[in-house]
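Q: Hi! First time doing this. I have a protein sequence and I read that you can turn it into a structure. Is that right? Here it is:
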Amino acid sequence: MFRNTLITLNRSTQAIHKPLTASTANTVRFYHEKVINHFEKPRNVGSFPKNEKGVGTGLVGAPACGDVMKLQIKVDDDTGKIVDVKFKTFGCGSAIASSSFMTERVRGLTLDQAGAIKNTEIAKELCLPPVKLHCSMLAEDAIKSAIKDYKSKRVSTAAATATSGVSIFHSLSKHYPTT
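A: Yes, that's right. Below is the predicted 3D structure, encoded as structure tokens:
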């Protein structure tokens, strides 16, 4: 479909299709069709409400290029599986494509399975050139950060529940002695 078309991404993050000529072929970086597809039709864009139960958020950035990626997972507490995923990315086409791909890749996986995904898998699937590998690294870092956030919230919730149960017991025992 794009074989004779040069794809560049302008600052407003819109794909520009230009006829491919010998002079432009030597001076421009090409994006693989998979990157273009995820860029033009990103999957799972958005975010969950701030206090929604079972959500972990990963926010990562690459200082070298300014890309910022927010990836959120929603986990079923009973199964430990990721049931929904959202992302918002400010960055180049490869960063957006890496985010979009990651959201599709982790849906339905356990936290351990999702945490085992490496940037090399993303880069290979999207055919990212070496100069864009940092985008796949951001996606790997984002999912790991989201998993860590989810787990820390779950531990905090469990600790708060245990603590409140103890304090309720102590309050009741003052009014209703067991002897």
